[in-house]
Design a protein that fits this description.
This protein has 956 residues and is α+β, with helices and mostly antiparallel strands. It has 31 helices and 31 strands. The protein has five domains: 1-35 and 741-892, Isoleucyl-tRNA Synthetase, Domain 1 (Orthogonal Bundle); 164-273 and 516-596, no CATH class; 299-511, Alpha-Beta Complex (Isoleucyl-tRNA Synthetase, domain 2), CATH 3.90.740.10; 689-726, no CATH class; 893-955, Ubiquitin-like (UB roll) (Roll), CATH 3.10.20.590.
Length: 956
């Protein structure tokens, strides 16, 4: 080694490098774990209690959305939200809060099961391996989680309580008068006493056990029913609406999805529709997310109207335009409507139009063929404005209750069972879709809302429908009622009263929201705590029999079928373990034979309540201790519904997870198990870290790291490739792992870079070349405190000059406010500006400045902050130190520039105190020599003062 090289190496012996960062970070992560630095105590003397000082502080419960333990591990896009909540949590600890921040794993799900099917590896084995890998990656980032509170949804100790909650929901009903959930035993008591009548007039005592079960099933908040579902033969399971893509295929696997009628478990979330809507107002959520939930719930006011088909059958419709009843000239049922089979006649009625039959010999044949056609389309496809309207006549007619006319009844795919009653009264003159259908099938039209243009009232010659809520009714009268001349609002009220008086309709509210399909034909999910007796009656298991653990099976996959074969039925994997399925149990009335439910719960089940388990994760006696839940999540000032103080995650969960979790919280609250009505008070959606995707001439992604840029073009192995900004992922060959960045620069650098890239709620492109900027910030910070040659601290016990104090306190004030507001990019900019000021000032830092600088950056870069804090002579962790407080005297600028204008033109600039009054500023401006000269003795008509920035003098 040369003399110069040796000297250079000695000079940099204590320089902040990636190797030093790795050593510092590993040591402090070990210390935090051993010390329990991030453990948040619960109130009281329970297992997680015991620190009265911390527990007496104001609390802050901060959560990230559940991660799924993918086999691919993390790329740098995944930790964005985790780092942000960690920075926020650290700042909250330093500002006097008892902070609960932890992270578990949402570990049930399809990917692990698919891997098990492919490899024969038990899903638990691969899932636990994936979790361990993610834990290592997350630990390396220095996240301050209370690890005592972590868990996975696949832990039997956890899903025992998921099953327990299901039992509570199963054994509850919604009292529409009291607007609350109540135990099913109270409903039974009402039936037994006669307080509530049984439909059909029979007494409760006269009903068989099976009949009583059927009655209760109509009320239970969790119930099994035969209903139209999304059946995916290629996956061998049914799917929720939200798991089907817009083109009618499965979100997982891209298989065709069909409509089928199967017996499945459902959650009666519709009972809570009004409360789910109303309580949004008390939440601190992005308006866009609230709007998505409001639209999904879809509340609309209108009327229910009955159209009689036979002496015993009537078609009930829900309409928001009951004022147009006189214009209903045909009806349309969803192909899956339960009345279709009973109203279809054996032969076509005399005079049936050929265009109505679809060329089929009988109504039954036409209906069967059309149903098969409609089943192959998704709800989204069915609702799309297709140019060609399809449908078929059922052969049945219904009676329009206001005109007495016989109107034909069709089935068509543009009517869905998922909205209203699955039936519509078609008013083609005033609805665009009905108009197109009527044109295609040569159906009559009647104008009942007077057009405001020149088209007239003969709808047969119109080019399109006329729709208006601000017009008068016409052609709308019979011997008993006339709506002619009324506006829409008055006509609605009048016809609704008329219908109600004759018991053929009533005013009502309808929701787009459907009950939640809760069954999956999967292995890797929570088993239902339900067994069926020999009469097929469902019974819930008592708490003493929970958890009901997953049994072993030889084959983890559900039976799948030809992806295009809609005429198949599910066969869940659990059904193959006969010893598990068929059991003898004593449920309180002696040993009996039962058959277990072989479906499993959907992967959403475990994430519907996990915030509660974080509070009391080791409680084996209760879902959660009431005092603990009240402390962390109970309602309080500014949070009328209670809930988590900050919940960060992607906007893609706007409907499914968030709506389902809100529903479970409300049921648990109604039943007295928790004090919070809502699970998450404040919601924040982080953006996405994107990356460039490079594709060759075949459109195939090539490794981004191996692409070269030459003269503005991009090349891979000599071939020109295209570049677009997109998602980051293994399949796109553009993923960058946090391990790579930590290895090259250190975790603190990665943390700073991800927070500095831009506003947290905005998507931004990843650029590995830009990471070095934050690395250099940390190196300059290190040099400002530590001598790189000796490793000794260079600070001095001296007073800081005024310029430094102003730079310091402005940074403290601005960065503190930014961290509170989740504006971490601007907080970093303020810290950088301060550090640059200190670097340029030269010389050793005053100790007080160095210490406050370290405390200022501690939430953002905790490892280097801990190391410097210790080097500065402190024996306690920086984590629980007080965040610096700005001195207002140094935050305000010493002087500001005031512009003095005469007739709108600048005549002087004054350096003044920012606290100057209007009167003082006016006197100074008028006395300024330049202003006096510019006035030249002219009369002053008016002086406009906007202290401290502007004086405008008006003359003449």
């Amino acid at each position: 080694m040369s003399e110069n090289s040796a000297a250079a190496e000695a000079a940099d012996a204590h320089r902040y490098t990636a190797a030093m960062a790795a050593d510092i970070e590993a040591r402090w992560q070990d210390f935090w774990d051993a010390d329990g630095t991030y453990e948040a105590p619960n109130p009281g003397d329970g297992e997680l209690g015991g620190d009265p000082v911390l527990a007496a502080k104001p609390k802050k419960f901060i959560m990230d959305m559940f991660p799924y333990p993918s086999g691919a591990g993390l790329h740098v896009g995944h930790p964005l939200g985790y780092i942000a909540t960690d920075v926020y949590a650290r700042h909250q600890r330093m500002t006097g809060h008892n902070v609960l921040h932890t992270l578990g794993f949402d570990a049930f799900g399809l990917p692990a099961e698919q891997y098990a099917v492919q490899t024969g590896t038990h899903p638990r084995v691969s899932t636990e391996a994936n979790m361990e890998n993610m834990k290592v990656q997350l630990r390396r980032l220095g996240l301050g989680h209370d690890k005592r509170r972590s868990f996975a949804t696949i832990d039997p100790d956890y899903y025992k309580w998921t099953q327990w909650i299901f039992v509570q929901i199963f054994n509850s009903w919604y009292d529409t008068e009291a607007k609350t959930a109540r135990p099913i035993t109270e409903l039974v008591a009402q039936f037994e006493s006669g307080e509530r009548a049984v439909s059909g007039g029979r007494s409760w005592s006269a009903l068989s056990a099976a009949e009583r079960a059927d009655v209760l099933s109509e009320y239970r908040l969790a119930y099994a029913s035969d209903a139209p579902v999304n059946w995916c033969p290629g996956l061998g399971t049914v799917l929720a609406n939200e798991e089907v893509t817009a083109d009618g295929r499965s979100e997982r696997g891209n298989f065709p999805v069909f409509k089928a009628k199967l017996r499945q478990w459902n959650m009666r979330i519709t009972a809570y529709a009004d409360r789910l809507l109303d309580d949004l107002d008390g939440l601190d959520w992005p308006e866009a997310i609230k709007l998505q939930q409001r639209n999904w719930i879809g509340r609309s006011e209108g009327a229910r109207v009955d159209f009689q088909v036979t002496d015993t059958d009537a078609i009930t419709v829900f309409t928001t335009r009951q004022d147009t009843l006189f214009g209903a000239t045909y009806m349309v049922l969803a192909p899956e409507h339960e009345l279709v089979d009973s109203i279809v006649p054996a032969a076509w009625p005399e005079g049936t139009h050929d265009v109505w039959t679809g060329g089929h010999a009988t109504p039954a044949e036409a209906v069967a063929k059309y149903r098969a056609f409609a089943a192959s389309k998704s709800d989204v496809e069915r609702q799309a404005d297709a140019k060609e309207k399809t449908g078929v006549f059922t052969g049945a007619y219904a009676t329009n209750p206001v005109s007495g006319e016989q109107v034909p009844v069709f089935i068509a795919d543009y009517v869905l069972m998922g909205y209203g009653t699955g039936a519509i009264m078609a008013v083609p003159a005033h609805d665009t879709r009905d108009f197109a259908f009527a044109r295609a099938f040569e159906l009559p039209m009647r104008c009942v809302v007077e057009p405001s243009d020149e088209r007239g009232t003969d709808a047969s010659v119109w080019d399109d429908a006329f729709a208006s809520y601000d017009a008068k009714l016409v052609n709308s009268a019979n011997d008993e009622i006339s709506l002619d001349g009324l506006g829409v609002v008055d006509a609605k009220a009048k016809i609704t009263d008329w219908l109600a008086a004759r018991s053929i309709g009533e005013g009502t509210v309808n929701f787009r929201l459907r009950d939640w399909l809760f069954s999956r034909q999967r292995y890797w999910g929570e088993p239902f705590p339900i067994v069926y007796d020999e009469d097929g009656i469902a019974h819930s298991l008592p708490e003493s029999m929970l958890p009901l653990e997953l049994p072993e099976v030889e084959d983890y996959s559900p039976r799948t079928f030809d992806a295009d074969d809609a005429d198949t039925v599910p066969e869940p994997p659990l059904s193959r373990n006969e010893d598990w399925v068929n059991v003898t149990l004593d449920l309180g009335d002696g040993p009996k034979k039962y058959r277990r439910e072989t479906n499993t719960m959907p992967n959403w089940a475990g994430s519907c309540w996990y915030e509660l388990r974080y509070l009391d994760p080791r409680n084996s006696e209760k879902l959660v201790d009431p005092a603990v839940e009240q402390y962390w999540m109970g309602p309080r000032e500014g949070q009328p519904h209670g809930g988590v103080d900050l919940y960060v995650g992607g906007a893609e969960h706007a409907v499914l997870h968030l709506l389902y979790a809100r529903f479970w919280s409300k049921v648990l609250h109604d039943l007295g198990h928790i004090s919070s009505v809502e699970p998450f008070h404040k919601l924040y959606n982080q953006g996405m870290i994107q990356a460039f995707v490079y594709r060759d001439s075949r459109g195939i992604a090539v490794p981004a790291a191996e692409v070269e840029e030459r003269d503005g073009a991009f090349f891979y192995e000599g071939e020109k490739v295209s570049r677009v900004l997109g998602k980051m992922g293994k399949s796109l060959k553009n993923a960058v792992t946090p391990d790579e960045i930590c290895g090259e620069y250190g975790a603190d650098t990665l943390r700073l870079y991800e927070m500095a890239m831009g506003p947290l709620d905005v998507s931004r492109p990843w650029d590995t070349r830009a990471v070095v900027g934050q690395y250099r910030l940390l190196q300059r910070l290190w040099r400002n405190v530590v001598d790189e040659a000796t490793g000794e601290v260079t600070v001095v016990d001296a007073e800081a000059d005024e310029d430094t104090l102003r730079a310091l306190h402005k940074a403290i004030d601005g960065a503190g406010q930014d961290m509170t507001g989740l504006r971490f990019n601007t907080a970093i900019a303020k810290v950088t500006e301060l550090n640059n000021h200190l670097t340029k000032a030269g010389g050793p830092l005053p100790r007080t400045v160095a210490e406050q600088l370290v405390l200022l950056i501690a939430p953002l870069a905790p490892h280097i902050a801990e190391e410097l804090w210790r080097k500065l002579g402190h024996s306690e962790s920086v984590v629980h130190q007080d965040f610096p407080v700005a001195d207002p005297a140094y935050v305000v600028d010493e002087t500001v520039t005031c512009v003095v204008q005469i007739k709108g033109k600048v005549k002087a600039r004054l350096e003044i105190s920012p606290s100057i009054t209007d009167e003082e500023l006016e006197k100074l401006a008028l006395a300024d020599p330049g202003v006096v000269a510019a006035l030249g003795g002219a009369a002053i008509r008016k002086v406009i003062v906007r202290a401290p920035k502007l004086v405008n003098i008006v003359t003449g």
